[in-house]
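Q: Here's a chain of 187 amino acids. Please give me its 3D structure as tokens.
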Amino acid sequence: MRVLGVDPGLTRCGLGVVDGRGGRTVACVAVDVVRSSADTPLAERLLGVADAVEEWIRVHRPDVVAIERVFSQNNVRTVMGTAQASGVVALTAARAGLPVAFHTPSEVKAAVTGAGRADKQQVTAMITRVLGLAEAPRPADAADALALAVCHCWRAPMLERMAQAQARSAELARRHKARLAAAAKGR
């Protein structure tokens, strides 16, 4: 499975592509950060993010796009920009026909470091080790994008099994209710 991980942002948007080779074996394909100036009009900044993601999808051909789920911070302005960038990334992926998965920062940190409250340096150190990189990805947005991709590689099989189990459970419950209804009619 090839995953494009995106750490959304307007000033810096991290992009990382990882190949999951089964189990916990993962390999880095590419990593970078899309940058834009705070002085650039918002629409142009969002267009820059969309264009970069579109190009990465075209070049790296991921199977899925994993995006960091926006969470509430104290700075509403930062949250709004992150949410806007996240929406543009999700739209770009959907237009390319790719599934989109959202992971919370704590899910990503827990998957990569074992601790949901790990700091950026811990995430960067672990992602460097897990992917066998010669040097740490910089800035932290790049490491976070790779961490998102790795998180998805490791969590997707479990999430798929859970979804299948829930579907089986719902079908069994439906059949059971139908049998009960039929038995009640036969009385």
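Q: Can you summarize the key feature?
A: The domain at 2-158 is CATH 3.30.420.10 (Nucleotidyltransferase; domain 5).
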